[in-house]
User: Which sequence fits this backbone?
């Protein structure tokens, strides 16, 4: 819970775009969330566009995928499931201990195309 600010992204080449600096995600204790000015980087062709997502809805903690070490022993990846104005969206937790960062992964996870938010 708390407010998370945009930290960095590896989806688009180059420096942080000015509009990314004001992107935040707010997670409330009651399970509600708000996203404000989050860049829509679902398509790399849109990297220089200025489409921003502002949405609200509910969040829950659940498994959002798995991490495979290559030896056939995948581990559950935990994160947030967001439902609401965004449709259904998953955001992973990043880090070994709280406060965790939030990580959006785009496309094939092995490509490393991500957007990261850190707790304010």
Assistant:
């Amino acid at each position: 819970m708390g407010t998370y600010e945009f930290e960095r992204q590896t989806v688009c080449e180059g420096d942080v775009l000015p509009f990314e600096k004001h992107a935040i995600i707010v997670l409330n204790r009651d399970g509600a969330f708000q996203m404000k000015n989050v860049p829509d980087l679902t398509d790399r062709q849109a990297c220089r566009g200025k489409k921003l997502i502002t949405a609200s809805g509910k969040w829950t903690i659940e498994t959002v995928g798995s991490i495979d070490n290559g030896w056939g022993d995948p581990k559950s990846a935990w994160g947030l499931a967001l439902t609401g104005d965004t449709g259904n969206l998953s955001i992973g937790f990043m880090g070994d201990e709280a406060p965790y960062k939030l990580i959006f992964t785009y496309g094939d996870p092995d490509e490393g195309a991500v957007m990261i938010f850190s707790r304010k």
About this structure: Residues 2-119 form one domain. The chain has one domain: 2-119. The mean pLDDT is 84.
